[in-house]
Amino acid sequence: MHSVIRWMHHTPRWTVISVCVIAAVLLFVGASAHVTDLLSHGLHPYDWAPGWLNLYWSSLALFDALATVFLITGKRRGIDLACAIMATDLAAGWYAAYGIQDSSLADQPGLQRLTVFAALVLGTAPFIRRRLTN
């Protein structure tokens, strides 16, 4: 356990940069998709989803882009925002799949990718957060 805590404090710079770049690129892809949805369908791009869920996903056009900028500039708030986005987006996605669409993870490739991305962000955040600036 002590070695894990020690590694958290001394995460190699290349690891921090790699995770930030990967997360920033994927968040930018997400922001682009949400902007495209907004431009094509307005604030309610998913007919099957309740209004609050549509508004949440539409808001990610802004929040994904913001997290991208913060990560690229090495700001700690970038990983903090990315964690908040991943946790809430994953919860929303799972709710949509299981609670609304009566679907499963096997039938939702987008949710599969989101789950892997969330695991990357949430799993690496404690290791890279200390190496980022305020």
Keywords for this structure?
5 helices; 134 residues; globular; 0% strand; mainly alpha
Provide a short characterization of the protein structure.
The protein is mainly α and 134 residues long.
Can you characterise this structure?
Helix content is 78%, strand content 0%. It is globular and about 45 Å long. It is an all-alpha fold. α2 runs antiparallel to α3 (51-72) and α2 runs antiparallel to α5 (109-128).
List the helices and strands and how they pair.
Blueprint: H1 2-9, H2 13-41, H3 51-72, H4 76-100, H5 109-128
Helix pairs in contact: 2-3, 2-5, 3-4, 4-5
Taken as a percent bin, the fraction of beta residues is under 5%
State the major sheet.
Answer: none
Overall body shape: globular
The helix fraction, in percent, is over 70%
Structural class: mainly alpha
Low-confidence stretches: none
SSE arrangement, N to C: HHHHH
